[in-house]
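Notebook entry, structure prediction.
Reason for the run: the old model in the group folder had no record of what sequence produced it. Starting over properly, with the input documented here first.
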Amino acid sequence: MKTSVIFATFSIIALSVFLFWARFNVYDHNTAITVNDDRDSYTFTAHYDRNETGRVEHFINKNISPDQMGSSENDYIDANTRLNDNTRFYIKESPGKLKIRLDKMTNGAASYYRIRKMCEGVKELLAGK
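New structure, fully documented this time:
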């Protein structure tokens, strides 16, 4: 009886530690980047180490200055936005994930090149860890 209580207690503690570790595991070093540039839209998607979120947000904010997206590494953003130069795009960002979509029909060439250059910079930032 005593042994089964100790075993059950140990099992519950071990399961709790594992679930906590699995939920907050930030040591995922896999980076996946997808770019789709077709006639109507430009889409950039990245999945990366959660620890890189702050660097990515800082880089994006520097490139869209004076506008700003997130101010914390734990921000979740899901918005259609318009910058001061009338560049309109969709951004979805959370720790370790980023998606940017620009509609080429509602933006000019300068806006397209600005967002594409920013996304290429994010790609280089993540590749040069």
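Summary: The CA atoms of residues 61 and 68 lie 5 Å apart.
The old model has been moved to the deprecated folder.
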